[in-house]
Amino acid sequence: MVLDDVARENTGRSTALAIAVVPLFFVISGIVIRYAAFTVVWPDHSLQPYIQSLCRWDCSWYVGISEKGYEGFPIPGESNVGRWGFFPLYPMLVAGLRAVFPFPTAIVAIATSIALSYASCLVSWQLLDRNMRAYILYCAFLLSGPFSFYFTTFLSEPLFVLLTSCVFLALKRSSYLAAGVFSALLSATRLVGVFVVFATVIQMFQEHRKRGGPVLSFPRLVLSRPDLLVAILISPAGLFAYMLYLHLTVGDGFAFVHVQRAFGRATGNPLQFLWDAFSATPATGWLPTSPQWSAFACVAGLALSAVLAFRRQYGAALFCTLGIVLPLLTNLASMVRYVVGLAPLVLLAMTLLAAHRATFYAALVLLPATCYFTMIAWMRGYLALV
Length: 386
Description:
The protein contains 20 helices and no strands. The chain is globular, with a radius of gyration of 21 Å. It has helices at 2-8, 13-41, 47-54, 58-68, 89-100, 105-127, 132-144, 157-172, 176-187, 196-210, 218-224, 226-234, 237-249, 255-258, 270-279, 290-310, 314-328, 335-340, 343-353, 357-379. The protein has one domain (2-385).
């Protein structure tokens, strides 16, 4: 879709080259910065320890799914923690690529994540309305920014961001069937991906109203258009397929929900979670604690969602709000990762930073610079980055 748009716009060779080269530059710079941080923490500077330093926390669960699949029930050894909470699409993709390229799983996954993040940058060109400064910052954020390790290791974020971007690009082009297919894949990547169907319905409704259609006739329009109806109905197909698999193999189609208690996630009052996090002040020094960083990320994400709504991007605003509130109902664990993995929020943030020359250049310097320090924190197990 991106290449088709560039060709139809008769984009100049220099612009087309920049679209391809800018993310490649940040791929290389990101690898250099993260490796430099690795040499500070690990005494052995060879490739294998570097791969291990990138693959932390949930990465090991995805490696296990890719190599061994999901456990049956009961789990051998009677463990109460299973892999069912991690959705299957990305591990399946890595397993398929590993069958073609005979390398260790982690290496295949890291290369795949970098390629997916590179593709996300290309898709963002249209979503950013061909704003070159915003495009440069977005590429810097994904590939060599402070959270670039999320998008360059074996986590669901690289695929989730790419598929989310593809959904919204398809909606921007009114390609509803394509949006439905991408939505189905998104719902097989992470649970909150199923909520993107609301963005599809909102886009359909907004186009209906722009053509002068009355509100009450919208359901009749959807029922009379097979393409619209199919796009809506297939959007949660990935989730339903995973639920069927769990039902047949484990006996519980909602095992991905029920296993969350084993990870310490129990439903509670989200406002209480936020209050407790902000109240967890540091015992010494002035730097915020891990819970406070998670709470800041949550509030920042909700604030950016409100800005999306103010800009009349109601579908993206609702999707991002649900993508934050749903995990918040259990606790604030992994909230930083969840927020930065919501593509519409990052696209908006980079657009705002690119609006003025001073903030653009400041961000262009700070994004790669902070990558060095957050990579060290990631390798040392800083809990806010889990």
